[in-house]
Automatic annotation (TrEMBL):
Residues 129-198 form the Tyrosine specific protein phosphatases domain. Belongs to the protein-tyrosine phosphatase family. It comes from the Bacteria. Gene3D superfamilies: Protein tyrosine phosphatase superfamily. SUPFAM superfamilies: (Phosphotyrosine protein) phosphatases II (SSF52799). This is Tyrosine-protein phosphatase. Pfam families: Y_phosphatase3.
């Protein structure tokens, strides 16, 4: 059975509540993902000295930053001996929410839900360059890698779904991993009061229908995950075989 234990998956970091290991999930041939190789996270700009000590023991080799340009500039970070690669995906929900506020339009939970679904569909159709480059990094070597955005839930959540799908992990397991954000992530206090609480819960948590919106777009717009990986992201059968060699137990 796939391991969803929070204690085994998370490292207990004080400055990154959504930092967790993708190890243990069963991929092709019932082979589990290797532990301490692939991590997903929220942003890494608030890590404490103790957090850095924990990460140094892994040891992390690479960090892929999916945050937008302004997000990365406002909360930069540097990790000793860790190569950083920026693959910016702009936070369209935040931008549209700010535009609504400036226009005097109220953000409601239904509007927020529609915005989130549109954002996930955009990942599929508008951000293939970034996700193709993400796979290029995964295929380079098996040095421990963390990929993250700001909250580690949307851009990071779709990236995690893509790599797990490419490794043959079941959709049920992928959804469980995706929803684990709601048990781990601590939203920033600064957003309190910026919108009604019911809307904030939609924007700062994850829902099954968000990821399903992306996966449905993969099916309906691109003919399924196999064709999407191959034709849009450049992940063909040989690349998937190499991914398995790098990240699945032998």
């Amino acid at each position: 059975m796939d391991d969803f234990s929070r204690t085994s998956r998370t490292l207990g970091l004080a400055g990154a509540s959504n930092f967790r290991d993708l190890g243990g999930y069963l991929g092709d041939g019932a082979r589990p993902l290797r532990w301490r190789r692939l991590f997903r996270s929220d942003h890494l700009a608030a890590l404490t000295a103790h957090d850095l000590q924990v990460l140094a023991q892994l040891p992390l080799a690479r960090a892929i930053d999916l945050r937008g340009v302004d997000e990365s500039a406002s909360q930069p970070y540097a990790l000793p001996s860790v190569r950083q690669l920026a693959l910016p995906i702009e936070p369209t929900v935040v931008q549209r929410a700010k535009a609504m506020a400036a226009a005097g339009q109220a953000m409601t939970a239904p509007i927020a839900q529609e915005l989130m679904q549109d954002t996930y569909r955009a990942f599929v159709n508008d951000n293939t360059r970034q996700f193709a480059a993400f796979f290029d990094q995964l295929l380079t070597d098996d040095g421990p890698l963390v990929f993250h955005c700001t909250a580690g839930k949307d851009r990071t959540g779709f990236a995690a779904a893509l790599v797990l799908l490419a490794l043959g992990v079941s959709r049920e397991t992928i959804m469980q991993d995706y929803l684990l954000t709601n048990a781990l992530y601590r939203r920033p206090a600064i957003v309190q009061g910026t919108a009604p609480e019911e809307a904030l819960r939609v924007i700062w948590q994850v829902q099954e229908d968000f990821l399903l919106a992306a996966l449905d777009a993969v099916e309906h717009d691109h003919g399924g995950i196999e064709r999407y990986l191959r034709q849009r992201l450049g992940v063909d059968a040989a690349a998937r075989q190499r991914l398995a060699q790098l990240y699945l137990e032998r």
